[in-house]
Amino acid sequence: MNHFDLIDGALHAERVSLERIATTVGTPTYVYSSATLTRHYSLLRQAVDRHPKQLGAGALIAFAVKANSNLSVLATLAKLGCGADTVSEGEIRRALASDIPGDRIIFSGVGKTDAELAFAIDVGVRQINIESGAELDRLIAVAAAKGVAPAIAIRVNPKIGAGGHARITTGGETDKFGVPIEEAIPLYARAIASPHLTPVGLACHIGSQITALEPMEAAFRTVRQVAETLRGQGHPVERLDLGGGLGVPYHGQTDLPSIDDYVAMCARVLDGLDVEAAFEPGRLLAANAGVLLSRVIQVNQRADGRRFLVLDAGMNDLMRPALYEAFHDLVPVTPREGEMGPYDLVGPICESTDIFARDRQLPPLRAGDLVAFLSAGAYGAVLSSEYNSRPLVAEVLVDGDRWAVVRPRPSYDEMWAREPKAEWLE
Ligand SMILES: *Cc1c(COP(=O)(O)O)cnc(C)c1O
């Protein structure tokens, strides 16, 4: 479900014409819909609120900032009461700058530095998710130096990986994330024994773009068992952070688990445990809330019949296809008449991985036509770069009939200004 629809034959974001945005801001440009962000958050919030006994009355929904860290996107979610799941000092700073209070911020990540841990303590994050014994020891030292005892959860690796591609699986035995179950129990006891930590529970996140509930359910049951074992040893376990990872329909699939089914499964697994749950959705909230607008530079027709649709968006603007063979639907912004035929969708970057798709069936397209990659609101702009000295892709946020450039494309002068010349070269 999203708010990108045809109005009078042309694709709009809510009530704003994408053609108008492209004419004003240029391309490539990401366009986000506030209504879609709001709708997805509200659906999840309502689903969670239907299970106060199983999930806790104040269950936190913490948007995974790494999926889309634009300050206006975060501020849109902040106004709805959404928290933030963060993996760096920069992401914590972005969340705070978007008016997400510290007590709604979770600090995750496999390699937090001492300085980042100290920063997280200073701004009062809700909880720090610990991913290894080595990290636990460093946090104890940092907290001891400050004379405080921050809330922590232990991220358990349940040896169940899942996700839309091997490169986005995190819960498998050989993945770098989390603490193996056998080690999690003694680690928790060690945390309890430290006067400089306040262990509040467990966390788990097994992968991304997960399209079936079974692996998640199995992982959560494992985490529940760990929680019960810990309680059996007399340790308090008050919170279970269930991570993110629920998939979205990139192909227009209709057989994905619904938000309601997902939350009902979580409630079933936690039933009777009396914990407060937390959710860390990234893709679920943002993916379908964004498109990437691009113009056709030209069509390269080969003698053997192959046709390349050369776009002004490249892998530096939308890296998901090159990084993990991701699928993004491409649609003309103004529908074109004519027989459908195959195109290879490519960018202008000098890399053979700069290809978005092969043999896509599209109506006839010409130089100058405006097209949109759909479902590009998560892991899109955040992964963009200036490779090939292409200015960083712009971002626009739409809200009803209002719209704003929320990350302007830099000028070349601005780009060069970030690279002061070594004095001996002046
Ligand atoms: C990436 C990540 C998420 C969000 O994953 P999605 O698939 O975008 O929902 C949540 N929690 C942690 C710890 C993550 O690393």
TrEMBL record:
<feature type="binding site">
    <location>
        <position position="245"/>
    </location>
    <ligand>
        <name>pyridoxal 5'-phosphate</name>
    </ligand>
</feature>
<comment type="pathway">
    <text>Amino-acid biosynthesis; L-lysine biosynthesis via DAP pathway; L-lysine from DL-2,6-diaminopimelate: step 1/1.</text>
</comment>
<feature type="binding site">
    <location>
        <position position="379"/>
    </location>
    <ligand>
        <name>substrate</name>
    </ligand>
</feature>
<dbReference type="Pfam" id="PF00278">
    <property type="entry name" value="Orn_DAP_Arg_deC"/>
</dbReference>
<keyword id="KW-0028">Amino-acid biosynthesis</keyword>
<comment type="similarity">
    <text>Belongs to the Orn/Lys/Arg decarboxylase class-II family. LysA subfamily.</text>
</comment>
<dbReference type="InterPro" id="IPR022644">
    <property type="entry name" value="De-COase2_N"/>
</dbReference>
<keyword id="KW-0457">Lysine biosynthesis</keyword>
<keyword id="KW-0456">Lyase</keyword>
<feature type="binding site">
    <location>
        <position position="379"/>
    </location>
    <ligand>
        <name>pyridoxal 5'-phosphate</name>
    </ligand>
</feature>
<feature type="binding site">
    <location>
        <position position="351"/>
    </location>
    <ligand>
        <name>substrate</name>
    </ligand>
</feature>
<comment type="function">
    <text>Specifically catalyzes the decarboxylation of meso-diaminopimelate (meso-DAP) to L-lysine.</text>
</comment>
<dbReference type="Pfam" id="PF02784">
    <property type="entry name" value="Orn_Arg_deC_N"/>
</dbReference>
<feature type="binding site">
    <location>
        <begin position="280"/>
        <end position="283"/>
    </location>
    <ligand>
        <name>pyridoxal 5'-phosphate</name>
    </ligand>
</feature>
<dbReference type="InterPro" id="IPR022653">
    <property type="entry name" value="De-COase2_pyr-phos_BS"/>
</dbReference>
<feature type="domain" description="Orn/DAP/Arg decarboxylase 2 C-terminal">
    <location>
        <begin position="30"/>
        <end position="377"/>
    </location>
</feature>
<feature type="domain" description="Orn/DAP/Arg decarboxylase 2 N-terminal">
    <location>
        <begin position="46"/>
        <end position="287"/>
    </location>
</feature>
<dbReference type="InterPro" id="IPR000183">
    <property type="entry name" value="Orn/DAP/Arg_de-COase"/>
</dbReference>
<feature type="binding site">
    <location>
        <position position="283"/>
    </location>
    <ligand>
        <name>substrate</name>
    </ligand>
</feature>
<comment type="subunit">
    <text>Homodimer.</text>
</comment>
<dbReference type="InterPro" id="IPR009006">
    <property type="entry name" value="Ala_racemase/Decarboxylase_C"/>
</dbReference>
<keyword id="KW-0210">Decarboxylase</keyword>
<dbReference type="InterPro" id="IPR022643">
    <property type="entry name" value="De-COase2_C"/>
</dbReference>
<feature type="binding site">
    <location>
        <position position="324"/>
    </location>
    <ligand>
        <name>substrate</name>
    </ligand>
</feature>
<feature type="binding site">
    <location>
        <position position="320"/>
    </location>
    <ligand>
        <name>substrate</name>
    </ligand>
</feature>
<dbReference type="InterPro" id="IPR002986">
    <property type="entry name" value="DAP_deCOOHase_LysA"/>
</dbReference>
<keyword id="KW-0663">Pyridoxal phosphate</keyword>
<feature type="modified residue" description="N6-(pyridoxal phosphate)lysine">
    <location>
        <position position="66"/>
    </location>
</feature>
<dbReference type="InterPro" id="IPR029066">
    <property type="entry name" value="PLP-binding_barrel"/>
</dbReference>
<protein>
    <recommendedName>
        <fullName>Diaminopimelate decarboxylase</fullName>
        <ecNumber>4.1.1.20</ecNumber>
    </recommendedName>
</protein>
